[in-house]
Structure formats: C-alpha cells, structure tokens
C-alpha cells in the first residue's frame, strides 16, 4: 500500500495503470488453504476501490487472477494433514464439529 501511495501522484500525471496479481481464492475460499485465501481478499478489495477512485484521473487497475500453478505450496497444501484417503463426508464432518 505504501508503494501505491508513493506512486499515485505520478499515476495521476500519466493516466497510468496499477497491475495487481491476485488469485481466484480472493473471491472464493477452499478447504485447507484458509490463510492463503485470507491474504487475497484484501488485495481484491484494494483493487476494487482503487479502480473506483482512479476513474476521476483516468487511471485504471488491472487485477490479474491466474489459475492454479504447479508449485510446492499447491501440492503440499492439498495433503498437509494426510487426508488424501479421507472421504469427503468425513472431512466435512470434521470441520462441522
């Protein structure tokens, strides 16, 4: 946010763009990656409000939401609790209490 605030005067002069890299999980959450999802919701909100605020100076915001990528976090997060063999019904029951 501090970088964005520092660059806003230049953005107003040039009618430029702010490009934010977010994730689909900033709009929809998934089981077992709650912390990651929670980190993306504020970025989505910032992009939304900046696009509204910058319209008066002809600035724009691009919010890019790439799909899943083949990273260690992606593969490790899916079975961080060793639940690959766990049935969906049993997993949901675990979280429902």
TrEMBL record:
Superkingdom, natural source: Bacteria
Keyword Transmembrane listed: yes
SUPFAM superfamilies, per the entry: NAD(P)-binding Rossmann-fold domains
GO biological processes: steroid metabolic process
Entry annotated with the keyword Protease: no
Keywords tagged on the record: Membrane, Transmembrane, Transmembrane helix
Protein name as annotated: Uncharacterized protein
Organism: Mycobacterium leprae
């Amino acid at each position: 946010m501090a970088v964005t605030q520092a660059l806003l005067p230049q953005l107003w002069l040039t009618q430029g763009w702010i490009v934010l890299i977010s994730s689909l999980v900033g709009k929809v959450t998934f089981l077992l990656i709650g912390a990651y999802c929670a980190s993306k919701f504020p970025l989505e909100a910032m992009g939304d409000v900046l696009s509204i605020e910058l319209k008066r100076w002809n600035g724009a915001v691009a919010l890019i939401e790439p799909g899943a990528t083949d990273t260690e976090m992606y593969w490790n997060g899916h079975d961080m609790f060793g639940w690959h063999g766990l049935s969906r019904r049993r997993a949901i029951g675990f979280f429902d209490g």
